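protein under study:
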Amino acid sequence: MTAYAIGNLHPKPVLDEEVFTYMERIQATLDPFGGRFLVHGAPAREVREGTWPGALVIIGFPAYENARAWYDSEPYQALIPLRTRHMTGDVLLVEGVPEGYEAAATAARLRAAVARP
């Protein structure tokens, strides 16, 4: 099942050389795990509900295990300080939904679980 690394990042107003180095080197850390950028540092074009400060990063992986192995890998762990010294934010790993997923079926399961005494 597809998985994603998602970041909501808040860069400092002036980017340092380390951030550029991070950006230049990150793809090489993704390649062995099948990772690819789906969204890279894009500000929200429209915030329809709530607030969304920062820049969004979404990286897709073929499976959750790939995403976790990438994040825990030595090459990526070595790059993390280049980013975190110059921007704050949240990074998470999530699984996608399986092929053919239907929200209505999930709602029916939840409704049945709630209805049980």
